[in-house]
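Now produce a polypeptide, keeping tokens residue-aligned:
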Amino acid sequence: VYVVGKANGSRACIWTIDADGSVLAEDLGDVLYDNGLDVNSAGIVAGRPPDDFAPVLLLPNGDLVNLPGGSSPRVRINNPDGIGVFQAVSEDLLWDVAADGTVLATTVLVDAAGTHFFATDINDSGVMAGFEMQGTTAVQAVAAFVGAELVITTLVNPNPSVITGFADMEISGGGDVLGEGSEPAGTEWGGVYPRSVIWLADGGTVDLGAELNVRHADGTGIATVNGSVQCTGKYYKRDLIAFVYAGGSYLDLQPASEGVRNWLEIDHAGGINSSGMICARGKVGKRRDYELLGCMLIPVAP
């Protein structure tokens, strides 16, 4: 298992976790910026150099691969298929890339009507989540190639009177989509509450704020685990609480998490993979003397 993030004073880092639980950390700060990283099952990391916004791929052998035409700092990749080819997306571009770093093709994401699609995530089936541009308005959508044609399907905001827009979109292996929305705080100082939504592959929707009965409900990761959708995130009810949504129910990750050290609280759950492993952050130690650490939560069968 590969995990990417930041450590050691906000430097990019990759952790390799073996089946026996051993962890190897590698500092990537000299070659990649610490934000917006992604990694696939081949250990290929997507990101951007510290001094440039153009997206790149970092191969396990240390080689950097430039993605032709890319200018956005955000790039997402999927896992290699049976012949060792994976895909990368950034804004309205898609690249087919061999596992050795050879860029096989660059495709502009535009449909037959001339509508551009701006991808923010892609799953292993090549289905993308992101936004369709309708004039100057970005509308949440999914897109996939059917033959040589790009087909874009917009996603309806299930609660437009409360949720004003979406800033990011993620997609699971099964085609479920997570959108990071926002709700105006309604106070004199302004601001917004995060209010995320899941669009289920079967056509239903889940408003996380309504389900949890809170205004602050921030979904941060989505995956298909054992054939069903699971979503991680955090919500606020007097304190930040990390949770996982699965099968229509929610689990608070704090009392469900155990380790060799005393976890005071787990206040943030980030990504989740298809095995149900969750990247999280919390405090260990004592109330007045604690460390803020990242961790991986591994589900254990009852």
In short: Residues 86 and 104 are 10 Å apart (CA to CA).
